[in-house]
Amino acid sequence: MSHDKTKKQAELIREISGVNPYKCMKCGKCSASCPSFNEMDIKPHQFVSYVLNDDLEALVNSKSLWKCLSCFACIERCPRDVKPGKLVDAARQLVVRERGGDFLSADEIPEKLDPELPQQLLVSAFRRYRR
Amino acid sequence: MQELINRAKELLADGTVARVLGWREGDMSYNPEVAYFNSAEELDKFVYNGFCAANLSKYMIEASKLEGKTLVFLKPCDTYSFNQLLKEHRVDREKAYIIGVGCCGKLNVEAIKAMGIKGIQSIEIDDACETLTVKTIYGDKTVAYKDAMLERCHVCKGKEHMVYDELMGESRDTVDAERFAEVEKIEAMSPAEKFAFFQAELSKCIRCNACRNVCPACSCRKCVFDSNKFDSAQKANVDSFEEKMFHIIRAFHVAGRCTDCGECSRVCPQGIPLHLFNRKFIKDINKFYGEFKAGEDAETKGPLTNFTFDDVEPCDAVERG
Amino acid sequence: MPMNEEFKPKIVAFCCNWCSYAGADLAGSSRLAYPADVKIIRVPCSCRVNPMFILRAFEKGADGVIICGCHPGDCHYSTGNYYARRRMAMLFSMLEYIGIENGRTRVEWVSAAEGVKFSTTMNEFVSKIQSLGKNVRLGDIRCKN
Amino acid sequence: MQRIGVFVCHCGSNIAATVDVKKVVEIVRNEPGVVHAEDYQYMCSEAGQALIAKAIAEKNLSGIVVCSCSPRMHEATFRKAAERAGLNPYMVEIANIREHCSWIHKNVEEATEKAVILARAAIAKVNLNAPLKAGESRVTKRALVIGGGIAGIQTALDIADAGYEVDIVEKTPSIGGRMSQLDKTFPTLDCSACILTPKMVEAAAHEKITIYTYSEVEKVSGFVGDFTVDIRKKARSVDMDKCTGCGVCQEKCPSKKTPSEFNRGLGNRSAIYTPFAQAIPNVPVIDRDACIKFKTGKCGICSKVCQAGAIDYEQKDEIVTEKYGAIVVATGFDTIKLDKYDEYAYNQSKDVITSLELERVMNAAGPTKGHLERLSDGKHPKNIVFIQCVGSRCSDDRGKPYCSKICCMYTAKHAMLIRDKYPDVNVTVFYIDVRTPGKNFDEFYRRAVEDYGVNYIKGQVGKVAPQPDGSLLVQGVDLLDNKQILMEADMVVLATVIEPDPSVRKIATMLTASIDTNNFLTESHAKLRPVESPTAGVFLSGVCQGPKDIPETVAQAGAAAVKAIGLLAKDKLLTNPCTAKPDELLCNGCSACANVCPYGAITYETKLINDHGIREERRVAQVNNALCQGCGACTVTCPSGAMDLQGFSNRQIIAEVDAICR
Amino acid sequence: MKYSYFPGCTLKTTGASLDRSARLAALALGFELEEIENWQCCGGVYPLGSDEIATKLSSVRALAEAKAKDQELVTLCSACHHVIKRVNDDMKNVDDIRTRANNYMKLDEAYAGETNVLHFLEVLRDRVGFDNLKAKVTNPLKGRKIGAYYGCLLLRPGKIMAFDDPENPTIIEDFIRAIGATPVVYPYRNECCGGYISLNEKDMAKSMCKRIKDSAEGFGAEMLITACPLCMYNLNKTEGGISVRYFTELLCEALGITEEGKAL
Fold first, then answer.
1. Residue environment code for D21-49, b if the CB has 16+ CB neighbours within 10 A, otherwise e
2. Rounded to whole angstroms, how far apart are CA atoms B82 and B91?
3. Count of structural domains, chain E
4. Among B180, C52, C78, E173, which one is least packed by beta carbons within 10 Å?
5. What are phi and psi of D116, to 5 degrees?
6. What is the 3-state secondary structure (H, E, C) of D447-496?
7. Same domain for E148 and E257?
8. In a 3-state reduction of DSSP, which class is residue C28?
9. Rounded Cα–Cα distance for residues E199 and E210 (Å)
């Protein structure tokens, strides 16, 4: 990724998310609250730094994007109104918009289904994992 | 009308009031004049009809200085002015006995003249206040009551009296126009059009001070334009500051206090629509600081002697105004 | 009047003693330039500014009038600027209503620490007045036409 | 016509380099009223001032204009110089040709022209100046201290030691405040009561100090030097004079189920109570909401057991009105309610407590007699977790945006005390930053880590989950290790944000003292006048002004006392002569001016007015010159122009406008 | 009393019993759920991106229809409730979203967040009232110890959902008391069940659900109740432990709607 493009993407992330990463005081309460913490390669409190440092390459390639449960615990408990969860979603948006790249392809899905699986799961996953 | 006279006589007779403030016949039937009545005999000259438009509340400033109570007849809209004067300690409630009189809308002879009716000798009003018979040297003409009403009655504030001792007579709804329509029309103009409009109107002003004299809000003991309080070393000349800015400052001084009684426009011999200044301020006040009716009560702080922490900024007021 | 290079606007700035006048002092001691067209009158508080003063300035040939006071909430007299804010909102709205270009009047809150803001504001205001040209209308409101 | 002298300063080259001062002198010489004009290198110097004095004497000047630096710099200097030369100081005006001219313009021609115009405006103004005389107001030699904590006590002691009468008003039944609830104090670990109690006793015994406990300030009027204050003495239901403080009533009182305020609700007290053993005065109060006698009419045991006959169920609130010259606010703080922070399970578990509650737990007079034990089951804890910044540094609406300042230090203290007394207990502290500026403070914190083995983890806690076995599972993060941590704890202690005592809002309103968005009282100047409120005669002591620890509070209390003493030492106060002045002949009596006056300086009087031969009773405005601060808000509300401001009159300002627009 | 009702996709399929029991209970309590015509799926998750418009339109459509009927809009599924409530908040407070959504929708009358969105539980609390509900219970579930499982979507973000205290909610506990049972409070009632992650990371979801179930059981709960079909699925997929029911099923039971109760 070229430097300019990265800069632009970082701005885009800030815009899509509506998050001001400068408000973060690195308290770590997001990471302390996150149920997916152990599954993530980039931890919730680190998202902010990646955006601030315009290091989007790492962020969009991070598996963390697909581990976030959108449970909003980080958003609810963040004392600085930074809302790391919003950054994750914005990064996710960036990926799906940019590459049209889905995290799961249509072919992979049937094997994961079971008859009791609620519709709600599918639409949610559909929206989170692809566009 | 007769019941007003009878009641006034009663109140005079039992000593409740020392005098009566009302209207008596003037030089023309459509020109009744404001008068004091001190006795039952004098009251025989009392009239009350569609042409009795004058707002008597301002007279109560002087009447409050007299011995004893004065009986005053106030129309619903006049009571707002009375309350406002009460708030400003200009009138004494104890010195007033207020009969709130009904109002069917007040008439404007200029409106009749504007219909092209000339040589008016007298005007008769039917009991239902529906039609006027205008007797002219060219014969009788019929005019619908509504078409001859004052501008202010088309945007009437309502039939309720805000302050009174007793009520007499019925009022009727006369509203058939948007109160702020004219203001909005001007607001929509380009700056050049606005300027041309007001320049044309204000150029007619002859500084007769009729507007100032009739206005219940403009009741300073001495008008700032007559004193030297703001003057510098040079004395006023023909096109001095006062001359030019009189109407803007006058509107500003009554802003938040003006009850929109419309007397200024009614009495202007040049027909300048002076209420358009006051109404603009009323519209702005309502919009920026919340609905406010001056004179609705005698306690609430006026909008310009009040504030909130997040009031509109002047630059935004202009953009949105 | 047509715009030309020679137009030197007359601009009156009313500054409250506690914040904005000090802000102007700070602009001065920080050498933050703004056009010499701006002349400052010191008043104790923005609430001391009477609409009469503003109209008087225009009548005497001013091309722009700006009022500067403490930020809302910071008034030395606690509440003065809140009243000023309402009064000026009303007055400016009226001036616009009668066709006076609204850029000729302005209110700006400038604290004693905002030398930069003071200078920027004055630069902006002067260039705004430059673009509006000489003030004709306010001196002319009641001319016979 | 005035006889005006104009003095143009070069200010070295500060002015002279860009303003042609000679030219300015030549032009202003011809202005109306000007009879003298000259320039000089440094007008503010002794020699410059001598020039002014000489001109005043020789040319019989009635007014002077100094074209120099900002009036904020040297107006006072030139006024004094004029006064020494026999001129009224208010006949001096300054044209600011340095900050507003020479320093910001480069073009000499432009700058000179502007300097001339500024000089003209000042000349035009001086032409209309009138001599003004500062008024005088008296000073009542008595101070009021609102709040009887360590801040209030120290302030009162210092003022009283200087020989002035002081009254302390304290809303609870005893003085002592938050400090009386603390167990030990950092950084020296003295016992709090051991150092506070003597001060409380000293205050109570001081002949110049009167203490009103269980009392509140009800109403304040007046102004600097001359405040009138109503104090409500709430009905104690116990006669202060008769009570001997034997304590039998409290022992025998059958209503013992009211949570003790002093113990932060961790223990109970009786309905008739003194908050703590060392309370001053040692006279109990009946809590009428809890008292059986007041609720049902039956009981009266305390009255029966009181040998002194001090119980008085009929006692009523009493209003005491007193005059003061100075008022010191020392209303202190409280911790916020934690009901919005239940991720820490404060409402779910008795073993999750605030630090202030821990103070009571550690205190020998507290609910556990000083034994460290879990409040749920009385067991000795093995693992204690401290969580810092609970509600501090929050920009959301749950907490407060500021740092509470004291928590890092008291947590280090708690951790150290626990490790010292109970070496078997593991102590972990989750922190965002450890902030320990202050003498011996960082050393103190390092001791906790190095000597006492307290485990400091940089990171926050996301959740405290009570477990079925009664333990607490703490889910946090170690940011330095980048690991999420699950840790079992037996107790969790929350360093809860402090906030100004809620009573301060009402008090600030009564005093017209300003308050910031966090309800801390605003100081007059953040650096140079930190203990003075912008409202003259009101001073700030302790946490009501901002978070601070005990040493800082005591230092500030002393500073506030000095400021108050400085005021009380004066016999008279000079008032600002630039005050509003009504023209009674023009006054409509409409009250618009009084409505906008922030100082309540305008009142109305009905008096006989002789208006050009017409004599009548009129309602006219009167201005109290001691109260008026000269903002001018009233002048603009007055449609007739009856109200004017001395020193900044309508005509003076109009003259300046005219001069500038000429 | 009639409410507009947005059932959502899952309540038409695997979550049918939630839908059915709620409607029956509503009738018994004297109000009616009038299904929005032609409702479209809410999308399951609220699109957090501030420039996302298209994905919000189905909610706007339902909201506008409720507004046209002058009814409050009731939801049952936590996901639908979350999405619709937040979109409604956007329409009320975010100028840009409102303008753009209205431009897309071309409704007869622009929609600006006028509709009040209620969860079925809120109807019980704020419209029916738990006291009134208690009075109507014919078969109080005495002695049953029930844990409330809130999950994330109903509670967070607290300011917008304005449903209950996000860290210390009480509404389901109050509900449990109203139907005569005993609520069991346990710390993980507002922690995530794993949500849609269970599609791809079954183990992760399972471990999260196990923690929830174990904790509730440890505090003495014999059963969990939830309002969310996805929570229900994830909790049920996690073998062992206590059973999970929809809160409406217990409501029917308590109201004595036995015939249908058996069918459930």
1. bebbbebbeebebbbbbbbbeebbeeebb
2. 8
3. 2
4. B180
5. -60, -45
6. HHHHCCCCEEEECCEEEEEECCCCCEEEEEEECCCCEEEEEEECEEEEEE
7. yes
8. helix
9. 17
Do B74 and B115 reside in the same domain of the chain? no
The residue among D511 and D507 whose pLDDT is bigger is D507
Question: E47 and E75 in contact (C-beta within 8 Å)?
Answer: no
Residues E250 and E183 in one domain: yes
Q: Give yes or no for a contact between E3 and E118, defined as CB atoms under 8 angstroms apart.
A: yes
pTM of the entire structure?
0.71
8 A C-beta contact, residue D42 and residue D9: yes
- How far apart are alpha carbons A86 and A100 in whole angstroms? 20
* Residues E98, E167 share a domain: no
* Interatomic CA distance for residues D374 and D368, integer angstroms: 9
Q: Are D572 and D585 in contact (CB under 8 A)?
A: no
Q: Identify which of E9, E152, E156 has the shortest CB distance to residue A120.
A: E9
Partners of residue A80 in chain D, C-beta under 8 Å? 393-396
How far is B234 from chain C, CA to nearest CA, in Å? Answer: 12
Q: Could you tell me if residue B303 is left (phi over 0), alpha (psi between -120 and 50 degrees) or otherwise beta?
A: alpha
Summary count for chain B: helices (H), strands (E): 12, 9
Q: Do D and E touch, counting CB pairs below 8 Å (3 needed)?
A: yes
Structure-token match 């005050």, residue found: D579
At D65, give phi and psi (nearest 5°). Answer: -120, 125
3.90.550, 3.30.160, 1.50.10, 3.40.50: CATH of D4-128: 3.40.50
Both tokens of C126, joined, read: 């002067």
Q: Which one, of C43, C24, C16, C1, lies nearest residue C125 by Cα? A: C24
Q: What fold is seen in the domain D142-234+317-332+501-568?
A: FAD/NAD(P)-binding domain (3.50.50)
Let me know whether B192 and B260 are in one domain. Answer: yes
Q: Which residues in chain A have Cβ-Cβ distances shorter than 8 Å to E79?
A: 120, 124
D460·A27 Cβ contact <8 A: yes
Separation between Cα atoms, residue C45 and residue D631, nearest integer Å: 6
Statement to judge: residues B187 and B286 lie in one domain: yes
Closest CB to E44 among A16, A17, A124: A124
| Same-domain pairing of B320 and B191 | yes
Give how far D63 is from chain B: nearest CA, Å.
17
Best CATH choice for the domain D580-646 from the list 3.30.70.3270, 1.20.120.530, 2.30.30.100, 3.30.70.260 = 3.30.70.3270
CB pairs under 8 A between B and C: 133
- Do E59 and E88 form a contact (C-beta atoms < 8 A)? yes
**Could you report the per-residue pLDDT of D600-633, keeping only the tens digit for each?**
889 999 999 998 888 999 999 999 888 888 999 9
Distance from the Cα of C107 to chain B's closest Cα (Å) equals 7
* pLDDT of the residue at B244: 56
Q: How is residue E35 written in tokens?
A: 């299904």
Domains D142-234+317-332+501-568 and D334-499 in one fold: yes
Q: How many independent structural domains does chain B possess?
A: 3
Single-letter amino acid, residue D59: K
Q: Which amino acid is at D613?
A: G
Distance from C-alpha of B54 to C-alpha of E193, rounded to nearest angstrom: 77
Class of the CATH domain delimited by A3-100? mainly alpha
Backbone angles phi, psi at B255, to 5 degrees: -60, 130
Query: pLDDT tens digits for C29-80?
Result: 889 999 999 999 999 999 999 999 998 898 888 999 999 999 887 788 888 9
